[in-house]
Write a structure and sequence with these properties.
single chain, alpha+beta, four-stranded mixed beta sheet, four-stranded antiparallel beta sheet, 48% helix, globular
Length: 517
């Protein structure tokens, strides 16, 4: 039998079959709202139905804001079904890529404003921190500096060589590799490599550590002249390496979809800068793991969020040792230069400064950054995790509070500490120039959220985000499978069954494929 008729290919054809008409996201929301009508206050139910009938993103987001505010006032007497319905209503269309919207500003315009506000915030933080005399600094700063030194250790020349030797090409776009040329194979082959001038010595050192890399560069035919002394090995290497790099001192600022309200700003950097930055990332991750911050595993944060929600009250009494989840707004874009300079040892600050882009281009203009690094920089994530760890530890040490791995969890800007310490940690974060995201921070109460998991008491009430248009049967299968999986594991998700039934009904009977999960 021809391969065309194999079960695998038949399933593939079924999954990619286009629907007769695109499914409106408002139809899905309305089905869910009508099936769950008893769990909404009357005014919110009317607003939701009105939003669905008018296809109004603005009205839907108003309801989302009201339900978000209510989640901070839960008393623990609410039913799990009610909380799940509210969370699902908030999430269902929040990240949907609407092609048209009645919002006053487009997601890109909102993102540009937030990016500009973050730069202004960094500038304010830089000026304020520079104005401080060392003796006037908050006392927790000295403990935070000691914590950073303890994590990173001394930066010796041998350690620098070890770090850049761990460099690698990442999966994202660079200034010299984009489109479908994003694998390491293409990034090694796309010559000339782009690098900022300050990072050039590190780039040459990274290439010189690998004889096969030098041999490859020689084979590309980019050498235009022979060195004066053919026996000078180092001179010959430096010459071919210099002919295979191109200086790019500014990265490129761009935006990618985040949710229906705003896009996410990212920086597309030079290929060799990112290569070196990822070496720093690998080293920092190892260092942070030794103090209880594992950036390769989110389960610790998720478990602490569950414990914080479950034990918010003990024997009917408020528990001030419950875990509080703190989230920061635009954390990557508000890491100011001066806070990094203040907390990191001077040699580490200089080393990381050499590997970063000090400016970016946007709409034909070159902008000198007030931030130290942005999303897109290879070491931004471990650097911000290190800073938040150091600030949290500094505050605890300064107040004489216990700070063991049983008292905190940090994953990027998802910070978890005990409630009785949370306000002091928040005050220190604000002093350092960061902004708390009140929409996603839960200091007290039976609801907590961290690292992609939502908990009400001990129940995981994480909802489904519809992030793509439903154009094919495969898109419907994707959503139906999630509903079925949630319903099999949690009885409180039965409110999704009407949505499942309505979606399956959209697939022609002859195209339906049923099987085990």
């Amino acid at each position: 039998m021809r391969k065309y008729y194999t079960p695998r290919n038949v399933r593939k054809r079924i999954a990619t079959t286009k629907l007769s008409s695109q499914v409106s996201p408002w139809y899905i929301l309305e089905v869910f709202v009508q099936a769950s009508a008893g769990y909404y206050p009357w005014d919110i139910l009317c607003s939701l139905i009105s939003a669905c009938r008018e296809c109004s993103v603005a009205r839907y987001l108003e309801v989302v804001s009201l339900l978000d505010d209510q989640s901070r006032m839960y008393t623990g007497h609410e039913t799990v079904e009610q909380v799940f319905v509210h969370r699902q209503t908030i999430a269902l269309l929040k990240k949907f890529p609407f092609t048209s919207s009645d919002l006053a500003k487009t997601p890109r315009e909102t993102a540009i404003e937030k990016w500009s506000a973050a730069e202004a915030s960094c500038k304010t933080a830089n000026e304020r921190i520079r104005s401080y005399d060392r003796l006037e600094l908050p006392s927790w700063v000295h403990h935070a500096r000691a914590a950073v030194q303890h994590v990173l250790g001394d930066l010796t020349p041998s350690l620098v060589m070890k770090i850049i030797g761990r460099g690698k090409h990442g999966p994202g776009s660079t200034l010299s590799s984009h489109g479908n040329r994003l694998s390491a194979y293409y990034k090694f082959a796309d010559l000339p490599y782009t690098v900022c001038s300050r990072a050039t010595p590190y780039a040459f050192a990274a290439m010189s550590q690998d004889p096969k890399w030098i041999e490859y560069l020689e084979s590309t035919g980019r050498r235009t002249r022979l060195p004066p002394n053919r026996h000078a090995h180092l001179q010959r290497e430096l010459q071919i390496m210099s002919q295979c790099v191109e200086f790019e001192n500014s990265d490129r600022i761009t935006f990618v979809p985040k949710d229906c309200r705003t896009d996410r700003p990212i920086a597309v950097g030079a290929s060799f800068n990112i290569f070196l930055q990822l070496g720093v990332k690998a080293y920092m991750q190892d260092c942070l793991r030794s103090v209880g911050v594992d950036l390769t595993d989110q389960s610790r944060n998720q478990r602490y969020a569950m414990l914080g929600a479950k034990y918010w009250s003990v024997n009917g009494n408020h528990n001030d040792r419950q875990f509080s989840t703190i989230d920061l707004a635009s954390a990557s874009d508000t890491i100011s230069i001066e806070i990094v300079k203040l907390l990191l040892p001077s040699d580490w600050f200089a080393f990381l400064s050499d590997l970063r882009h000090a400016s970016g281009t946007f709409e034909g203009k070159t902008i000198t950054y007030e931030k130290f690094s942005a999303m897109g920089n290879g070491f931004t994530f471990p650097l911000e995790s290190l800073i938040f760890y150091a600030i949290s530890k500094g505050v605890h040490k300064d107040n004489g509070w216990c700070f063991t791995p049983n008292d905190f969890a940090i994953y990027g800007d998802d910070i978890i500490v005990r409630q009785y310490t949370s306000q002091s940690v928040i005050a220190a974060l604000i002093w350092a120039g960061f902004t708390v995201n009140t929409e996603k921070s839960y200091i007290s109460g039976p609801f907590k959220e961290s690292c992609g998991e939502d908990y009400f008491l001990e129940h995981n009430v994480r909802p489904f985000y519809l992030k793509r248009e439903l154009r094919t049967t495969g898109d419907i299968y994707h959503m139906c499978n999630w509903i079925q999986f949630k319903n099999m594991n949690h009885k409180f998700a039965e409110c999704l069954i009407p949505v499942y039934t309505a979606l399956v009904a959209l697939i022609p009977f002859y195209s339906r494929a049923f099987g085990p999960m």
